[in-house]
Amino acid sequence: MAAGTQPVAGKARLEDVARLARVSRSTASRAITGAPGVSEEARAAVERAARQLNYRPNRAARSLVTRRTDLIGLVIPEPTSRLFGDPHFPRLIRGVNEELAGKDLQLVLFTPQSEQDERRLEGHLGSGQIVDGALFVSLHGADPLPARLAAQGVPVVVSGRPLGAVEITYVDVDNQRGAAVAARHLLAAGRRVVATIAGPRDMVAGQDRRAGYRQAMSDAGLLDRTLEEAGDFTRESGYAAMRALLARRPDLDAVFAASDQMALGAMRALREAGRRVPEDVAVVGFDDSPAAAAAEPPLSSVRWPLDEMAREMTRLLLRAIEDRSLPPRGVLLATRLVPRASSGA
Amino acid sequence: MAAGTQPVAGKARLEDVARLARVSRSTASRAITGAPGVSEEARAAVERAARQLNYRPNRAARSLVTRRTDLIGLVIPEPTSRLFGDPHFPRLIRGVNEELAGKDLQLVLFTPQSEQDERRLEGHLGSGQIVDGALFVSLHGADPLPARLAAQGVPVVVSGRPLGAVEITYVDVDNQRGAAVAARHLLAAGRRVVATIAGPRDMVAGQDRRAGYRQAMSDAGLLDRTLEEAGDFTRESGYAAMRALLARRPDLDAVFAASDQMALGAMRALREAGRRVPEDVAVVGFDDSPAAAAAEPPLSSVRWPLDEMAREMTRLLLRAIEDRSLPPRGVLLATRLVPRASSGA
DNA sequence: TTGAAAGCGATACCAC
DNA sequence: GTGGTATCGCTTTCAA
Fold first, then answer.
1. Cα(A288)–Cα(A310) distance, rounded to whole angstroms?
2. Closest nt by CA–C1' to B27
3. What is the per-residue pLDDT for B1?
4. What are phi and psi of A19, to 5 degrees?
5. Which residues of A touch B75 (CB under 8 A)?
6. Protein-to-nucleotide distance from the CA of B64 to the C1' of D11, whole angstroms
7. Strand order, beta sheet including A282-287
8. Lowest pLDDT segment from A41-50, A116-125, A306-315, B252-261
9. What Å distances lie between residue A176 and A12, A172, A184, B75, B208, CA to CA?
10. Nearest C-alpha in A relative to B98
11. Beta-ladder partners of A286
């Protein structure tokens, strides 16, 4: 290399730093990585040399031997149009970032948009050479990618309890208990004909919330399948389900919807049917989305801690990266009922 | 895929593949990378062996010698809350992905949220060992990061003409011409007192659109500074600006707003003032956002090709990666006026 | 067309 | 504490 002292961008190697600091490459490496067993003197010399040469460790070389990349992947296999419309993701990303703060780990986002994208991504992540581990936010829990990666030895944490018996670490909301609390809340208010608009049967959140509702109703000795109708979490489906329920059980005096959107649709149907909320029919939703508080009347809802979810996922992932032998585990986060006018609060 | 050898995940190296295929590592490497000069026979043997062993090239090792990562960064230094609320980003990402399709390049997203994040990111990207190059979507053009990276030799393309004399490749909308076309459209419709609600002075898009308006007005011999008011692209600022304009120039018969949001705010102010659109005052916006078509009356607007912008940025970046000696350049994309009822179409 | 061998730039083991 | 050196897994001359 040239004899000048010009710090050519990205050109200095550890060897150059070592030479300038008049130490061996080994010592220079220890100083740079902060490893123990380096005299204060040597460390200072190395740091000065590194700064002078504008030294940047070659991450490929480092990864080759450490088998680490210091990159954490966040995979969101959603159509970008939905991804960017959903207010959950910003908070989720913020939560991850908070947990990563001060860790010198860089978060990278992947948003596969097609089967082809997913295959390519599997190749990239599966090599284990791009990220040290990956978080999956899979809204439709059927995505095979996380399980495949986990099988290849890549540390993986997913949001939402996976369908089936996949051996994978996940963090989820305690949907069942949350739904049970909502139903009990309605019962405690004196309601006796408590219907539910459940979620889809093929989604875990739908199943669990339905199970929670049934448990509460069963405990009260009031379980009745004619009080159940299913939707797909959308407002329209909530509207349709409510109309079906009203037709079948005009005597109902409360309804628990497995999502705020469905609850809002239900409220419209109730209004159109001339039922007052909460006087005639009390309503509780799930998610405590902004729309819940803004509704007229304000909608009681079950809140779950998205931020904490993101942080817990990150913590679990970091732990799994530290110790690859850790067995998979599931974590359920508690929900909280936020009572508002729609249930008579 | 039945019984037989058990390919231990991520354990096979090129050497193993070569041995199984009964060729040298060199030949195996050539076969894997698709390099020329390999007999069909050898290639087939290597491919079979690779599949059998579930071989994945170690990307760190490869990068170490090729000095490539096959990763393209997309950096969006926006608060995630804004990022995910803005409908532009999905289309942008889709455009990038389309251009990347079939290239075996993986897109990774970075969303630095703070000064600290940006510094860390500079370190990571600046090493040149994480991405081969980066696209920057910097809504506020003042971000120093792209220029810094470019100075370190990392190929970089930004969206939006940068403020100042930064030597960096960019793609932007031809804001000036678009604004001029909008103003001329109003003039051609017979309007004579054409006001403008301009964008912020410290944003390039604001400056350029104002310049376009002035040029058209000046060409018509109708330039008059009392017809100009500035906003910050938001609906509220458009409302306030319109009120100020009406107070100052009650004789105005048209207004060009530098954003649809401002145009919508202006239309509200006009309605409140008892002016009919377009009979009394014609209105044209900029961006042709979904809100424009949905407005009442539908808003004429200047459309710019977001998808093409994303694709052109990607093309320029790929070219810059191929040939690092390419000088920076700026590309301006044409806009198109979409006339609707608000301007009498 | 093929193979042997020289790196790429770090880390980490092992003497000293 | 420090320094020599093997090593990580791949690509790429250079000869054969």
1. 17
2. C2
3. 32
4. -65, -45
5. none
6. 9
7. A228-230, A194-198, A254-257, A282-287, A300-303, A336-338
8. A116-125
9. 57, 11, 12, 39, 56
10. A113
11. A302
The Cα angle at residue A331 between residues A326 and A334, in degrees rounded to 5: 160
State the residue for tokens 């959107």. A261
For residue A251 the two structure tokens come to 């005597």
- B153: chain A residues, CB-CB within 8 Å: 9-10
B39 sits within 7 Å of strand D by its CB: no
Note whether B124 contacts A106, CB cutoff 8 Å: yes
Give residue A115's identity as a one-letter amino acid code: E
Alpha-helical (H) ranges within B133-278 are 145-151, 175-188, 204-219, 235-248, 260-272
Strands of A156-159's sheet in order across: A330-333, A169-173, A156-159, A133-137, A71-75, A106-110, B106-110, B71-75, B133-137, B156-159, B169-173, B330-333
Strand C, nucleotides covered by protein (CB < 7 Å): 1-5, 7-13
Give me A311's structure tokens. Answer: 């942080």
Asked if A307 is an interface residue toward chain B (Cβ–Cβ < 8 A), one would say no
DSSP label at residue B295: S
Do B309 and B159 form a contact (C-beta atoms < 8 A)? Answer: yes
CB B174 within 8 A of CB B334: yes
For residues A77 and B243, the model is more confident at B243
User: The tokens 């069909």 sit on which residue?
Assistant: B40
Nearest-CB residue to B80 (from A90, A116, A153): A90
> Cβ contacts (< 8 Å) between A89 and chain B: which residues?
80, 84
The Cα B259–Cα B241 span in angstroms is 13
| DSSP secondary structure letter of residue B2 | -
Q: What are phi and psi of B163, to 5 degrees?
A: -70, 150
For the record, the structure tokens of B224 come out as 């008059």
The larger pLDDT score, comparing residue B116 to residue A49, is at: A49
At residue A297's C-alpha, the angle toward residues A226 and A182, to 5°, is 45
User: How far apart are the C-alpha atoms of A300 and A206, rounded to whole Å?
Assistant: 19
Nearest CB neighbour to A84, from listed B63, B64, B87: B87
Tell whether B151 is within 8 A of chain A (Cβ). yes
Using an 8 Å Cβ cutoff, are A323 and A132 in contact? Answer: no
Q: What is the pLDDT of residues A102-128, one digit of tens each?
A: 888 888 888 888 888 888 888 888 777
What does the pLDDT average to over A263-267?
98
B209 in contact with nucleic chain D (CB within 7 A): no
Report the 10 Å Cβ neighbour count for B33.
11
Tell whether A330 is within 8 A of chain B (Cβ). no
Q: Using the beta-carbon criterion (under 8 Å), do A60 and B69 form an inter-chain contact? A: yes
Q: What's the CA–C1' distance between B157 and C9, in Å? A: 28
Residue B127 has pLDDT above 90, yes or no: no
pLDDT of B7 above 80 = no
Minimal CA separation from B255 to chain A, in Å: 31
Are B126 and A101 in contact (CB < 8 Å)?
A: no
